[in-house]
Specification:
binds zinc ion; about 130 residues; about 35% helix; flat
């Protein structure tokens, strides 16, 4: 995700700080804390790194996605639930971890794709039939 400051409100940094404070510096969707170090299991549940202490590679490969141990750090991002980057409504802006942000964006992307597909089909339906001369 590339951040272009010009796409956002001028006081975006203040908004981000306020949103993160309100969220208790945790992801609004999955509740994992900013800066947490650990891994996601195959169901997407979060486990702090100490939970993997003493876990064998066989067990780890079974429960965790990717190559075990695939330790990551949670970095909170700030997502517009309305997908309007210029929106300043705190009710539309959530602190989300990378994973929740990506899945939120992916869902939106699929919705846009489906909408465009429907529109193309409608537009195609309005085109005159080819090979028919009036
Ligand atoms: Zn999350």
């Amino acid at each position: 995700v590339t951040f272009y400051p010009a796409d956002y409100p001028v006081d975006w940094k203040d908004i981000v700080r306020q949103i993160n404070d309100q969220a208790g510096n945790k992801c609004k969707f999955c509740g994992v804390a900013n800066g947490a170090v650990g891994a996601r299991d195959r169901d997407g549940s979060w486990h702090d790194e100490h939970e993997m202490d003493g876990m064998s590679a066989v067990t780890g490969d079974h429960f965790f996605e990717g190559e075990f141990p695939r330790i990551i750090m949670i970095v909170l991002t700030t997502a517009h639930l309305c997908h309007d980057k210029m929106c300043r409504d705190p009710g539309h802006i959530f602190a989300l971890c990378q994973r929740c942000h990506l899945s939120h964006d992916r869902r939106h992307h699929l919705e846009v794709q489906a909408r465009n597909r429907r529109r193309r089909i409608i537009e195609r339906g309005q085109l005159p039939l080819t090979g028919v001369t009036p």
